[in-house]
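Duplicate of #3305? Posting structure anyway:
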């Protein structure tokens, strides 16, 4: 059975925010919500505007990867205009808002894998892509959120062993509108605390499954092996390498060793 369209009226019904999600644009099918949101931002869309796709044909992930978002899942991008000083914290607030909204609606326990993958039972359920443009001390930030809701990863060989979905975990259907509404509320709650809040950093840090684990970090051609020791307040990961030195990683892919 085809997945029903996402109802914007139902997301906004009871939405308790001042600006995030007060303007939602819905498209049944898009190549990527990131591009549609950027066009809206270039046209001076209000802060907090959200672009939602029923289905995304060419979704992109971090590090130029493909993101699978067929109908039945959540693919959205939202527009923020933060101070430049707030940019490092967007990763933290976006992953916290996704993790908290999933927990609050489904009761499932989530973890965050550095920097911003949301996991359930060690498998990825949601990914976040942030694209920024800076002008003076202000930024135009597009935050892309992909949440696997109805996805059946077993049918997609590229992700079958590393991904999961909410319905796979719960064994029943859930409301995408409810998850999106909660996410928008949580995100606004955290965003208005920027540029810096020790509380945000501590909450994000405490959910990181990466800390204390043996990891391999890959950034371009560089490969770093060691133990993920901590994160600093800019969101960078500090890895204690096998020779005792500490390397600071600001981006890249980190794999947890079994
Ligand atoms: C990642 O984990 O690599 C990030 C995945 C981000 C996917 C979302 S889906 C909505 C938005 N549009 C895109 O093309 N990508 C992001």
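Output from current build:
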């Amino acid at each position: 059975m085809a997945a029903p369209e996402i109802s914007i009226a139902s997301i906004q019904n009871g939405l308790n925010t001042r600006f995030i999600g007060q303007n939602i644009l819905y498209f049944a099918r898009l190549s990527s919500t990131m591009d549609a949101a950027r066009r809206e931002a270039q046209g001076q869309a209000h802060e907090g505007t959200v672009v939602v796709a029923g289905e995304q044909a060419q979704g992109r992930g971090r590090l130029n990867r493909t993101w699978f978002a067929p109908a039945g899942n959540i693919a959205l991008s939202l527009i923020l205009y933060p101070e430049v000083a707030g940019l490092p914290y967007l990763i933290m607030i976006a992953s916290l808002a996704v993790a908290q909204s999933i927990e609050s609606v489904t009761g499932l326990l989530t973890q965050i894998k550095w920097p911003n993958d949301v996991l359930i039972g060690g498998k990825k359920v949601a990914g976040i892509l942030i694209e920024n443009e800076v002008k003076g001390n202000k930024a135009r930030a597009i935050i892309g959120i992909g949440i696997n809701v109805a996805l059946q990863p077993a049918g997609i060989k590229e992700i079958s062993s590393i991904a999961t979905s909410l319905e796979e975990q719960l064994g029943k259907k859930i409301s995408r509108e409810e998850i999106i509404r909660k996410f928008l509320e949580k995100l606004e709650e955290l965003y208005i605390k920027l540029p810096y809040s020790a509380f945000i950093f501590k909450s994000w840090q405490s959910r990181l499954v990466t800390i204390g684990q043996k990891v391999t970090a890959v950034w371009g051609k560089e490969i770093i092996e060691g133990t993920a020791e901590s994160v600093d307040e800019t969101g960078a990961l500090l890895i204690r390498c096998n020779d005792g030195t500490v390397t600071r990683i600001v981006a890249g892919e980190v794999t947890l060793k079994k």
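Confirmed duplicate; merging threads. The longest helix spans residues 88-106. The radius of gyration is 18 Å.
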